[in-house]
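User: Predict the complex with pyridoxal-5'-phosphate.
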Amino acid sequence: MPTSAKKEFPLHRPSFSYNYSEFIGIGDNGHLWMEGCDCAELAKSFGTPLYVMSEAQLRHNYRRFRDAFTAAYHSVEILFANKSNNGLAIRHIMNQEGAGGDCFGYNEMYLALLAGSDPNKMALNGSNKEPAEIELAIANGVCVNIDAMDEIDMIEETARRLGRETHVGVRVKLELPELKDHHSTGVHHGAMPDIVRHEKWGMTYDQAVELVERIQNSDADLVLHELHFHLSRLDNQADAFALMARDMVRWAAKLKDDTGWAAPCIDLGGGWTFGRKEKTGPRGGVDDERVSSYEVYGREVGLAVKDECKKLNFPLPTLRIEPGRAISGPAGISIGQVGAVKDWPEKGLKWVNLDLSGNHVPWITIPHHYHIVPVNKAAETPKETVDIVGPICTHDILGSSREMPELVRGDLIAMLDTGCYAESLAANFNAQCKPATVLVSGETAEVITERERLTDVIGRFRVPARLLGASQALHGVLN
Ligand SMILES: *Cc1c(COP(=O)(O)O)cnc(C)c1O
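Assistant: Here is the predicted structure with pyridoxal-5'-phosphate placed in the model:
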């Protein structure tokens, strides 16, 4: 039975006294709740630091994004960017929702296939693909977006050897002249066209022509599937995405004139973001309620593609979108427990240490990225301004100058919007173990990633025999 014919998993909206999002808010007892679970209880049951994902919020975000784009355009495929959250359970949920997937590397693609993702709705992206990766894609019918001239040799050889029809796309390096006055609000600095010009991604127009012609003339069974472009955190306003979409259509139309190939699908990548009324969205104060909603993104991009196609007499292509952060980000939180609290009253400084660190929420380097909620004192009025810090030996400022109620050892703190690029980017600096992840669904909470143990962190270390032989430690161990 096709996924679309299945009955959708029902989502029951809880009622909160304050909503951070549809399924995360402050409950009657003044604690932070996710769906039907008190986050203080989750911390007690599963320990801290802890990642928590809301299944309903994840599904809701996906559906809202999908509906926004399908309302605006007749043929849309949403490919969840797996790298934003690689959890196997997350991928299963995305599959149940009918989402495709954008994959980087063998392992991400393997995980998605293992979870039963539909290969027809998957794309393999990457600037330096390995032969094994290309083979996994071709053997399973995943579209390979070519991003280097000699990648086509590997693809042809593999397609011939496996005797498989192979879908390929070309990742392009758009020039984006209309975005010259747009500066990235993301992690990259500078004007959009300069960022694209200087980064490793994408083929120039002439290279794209050469690739298309080679694919057209190949004796391997290659099918040209899509034109692909992605620019990380293009902007937090839909008009930048709409201008990018127009540039994509112009490239597609020019390619049609020069090669005869009319791209049946254009893939506009990810970078779609979200804002938070608390002014602590992904880019701090910049990402607030003024950030384009999913609905505005969908409408403006849909209109731009239709309009530009009409102008250039180009047949309307299927639109592929690869959102990562916009779907998974607001579906997850990270919980830490308060330990040492230190102050310097004369200077008005106070530091609240958590067991959660910058290893676990790596985007703390973007100031004010995450909204911070005192889990068990969520409804209390803030009394003081503190720095929330983690335990590792960097400055490890998780949130500077945050207004908080008085916090004491044992209190719990949650950082919102960590469903993307937290677990998937987590590090082991100071030989720290990574947190467990719990998936909440209504009143149910289940571990979907086990807490890392010291053996996981140090298990690959080896001491050469000559060092061990000369080491005091050896005697210590033997004693
Ligand atoms: C990272 C990436 C995405 C997802 O980006 P988000 O900013 O999380 O939406 C999508 N497509 C490609 C090719 C990417 O590299």
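The chain has 14 helices and 21 strands.
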